[in-house]
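so my prof wants the structure for this chain in the tokens format not the other one, which i didnt know existed until like an hour ago. anyway here's the sequence
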Amino acid sequence: MTARPLAAAALAAALLATTATGCAQSVDPIERLGRKAAHAAHHTRTHPSPATDTPAYRRWGLSSPVRLAPPPHPRRIRTAGPGLPPVVDRVPTHDKVVFLTYDDGAERDPRFVDLVRELRLPVSMFLTASVVGPGYAHFARLREVGASVQNHTLHHQSLRGLPYAGQRAEICGQQDRLRERFGLRPRLFRPPYGTYDTTTLRAASDCGASALVLWTPGEEPLGPGTIALVGPDDDLNAPPLVERTVQLLREVQRRGLSVGRLEDYL
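here's what i got, hopefully its the right format
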């Protein structure tokens, strides 16, 4: 931690994740969908896009271009056990790179597509079918501008303790749904609320996941390998998705870090 005032550290911690257990369990994702969509629509009406004759990074309120990390040399990540995928909450690397991840698919601000396109941000979207609902077209546009789509189950229920058949249905079911929508089967899987057990790992592996991805705890400072869960996403008083991302990018730049594509490192 640097000697920067504590406010900056608090901001970074708040932006990384809502709680130590991930997506807030106290608020249903479907409810968040309607509330955040209305919030984003209001913000878009009251905060029009800036003029387009200035550099993209300045239009989004940044002082310099976002540094993007090149793909690393191939590396091997320790697995959770024989035949099981690795579980990561921080990428094991000395590269000064962080990773931006987003959960559920409840927030679908069109400006976020513009942000990802104009700044060429390598973001990873972990989608839940029941939350995305009819909104897959939004994520198709994000894929077109470089975002990746990954698995976050069909119904966003906690998997730990469920029988194998139930866990497999949740994970493989979303794999199939994403293949139908996008023509791909994701390699990465994030369990809802960050809860899992050995059965989860077996089911994820059997469904084709090569890694189970958690996130770096929000109280830890940004640093090499941080997997940032950009939150909070269920607080009506929090800034919209675009503003939260820009705030995090400012902290990334202040710490001299770059943004990498998570799939290149796992």
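also thought this was worth mentioning. The chain has a mean pLDDT of 85.
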